[in-house]
Amino acid sequence: MATRSPEAPVPGSPDARDTARGVSRAPRIGSAGVVTRLAIAGGLIGAYALSIALEPAELPGVTVCLVENLTGLDCPSCGLTRGFLLISHGELRDASALNALALPVYALGLVLAPLLAWEAATRRDVVDRLLRSRPATVACVAVAAVALRYVALLV
Description:
By secondary structure, the protein is an all-alpha fold. The chain has eight helices and no strands. It is globular.
């Protein structure tokens, strides 16, 4: 009797039909992955809800940024918290003035939260697969975002 490799799909299953047609399906995630994705999605949703509930004027004027406290220079994420609050209250121009990355990071979170929740519900791994398949692209986007932040500081 021939044995099947653990990676091979069960004959007749949707995965086997997709493999026969050359369609690649996202890998399945385990229980720990589901919990992790739900925790991250919940944290993002909580952060957005809090940014709507708080008024930008309610934030204390102290900085918690280690880079700024040690060097006196802004780091790439300086101003993101206040920027998030401003975006949630419709003040896009002021948010961009605080940190040029505020709008893209805010938008990324709005896309990422429901995507992670969908991954948890369907147990399909899409985000990790995308990041692993295009690491150079992800790195270039991150470097460009940091460069954009420092160019915005100069202007």
